[in-house]
Amino acid sequence: MFELPDDIQEIQKLARDFARSEVLPGAQERDHSHSYPAAQVASLAEMGFMGMCVPEAFGGAGMSTLAYVVALEEICYADASVGVTMSVNNSLVCWPILAYGNQVQKEKYLPDLASGRKLGCYALTEPNAGSDAGAQRTKATPVEGGYQLDGSKIWITNAPKAQVCVAYANLAVEERHKGVTAFILEADWAGYGIGKPEDKLGITSSSTSELHFDKLFVPVANRLAEERKGFGIAMATLDGGRIGIAAQALGIAQRAFDLAVAYAKQREAFGKPIAANQAIQWMVADMATRIESARLLTWRAAVAKDKGDKARASHYCSMAKLSASETANFCADKALQVHGGYGYSKEYEVERLFRDARITTLYEGTSEIQRIVISRSYLA
Ligand code: CAA
Question: Which residues line ligand 1 at a C-beta cut-off of 6 Å?
Answer without folding.
Answer: 84, 88, 122, 124-125, 131-134, 155, 157, 177, 231-232, 235-236, 238-239, 314, 363-365, 369, 372-373
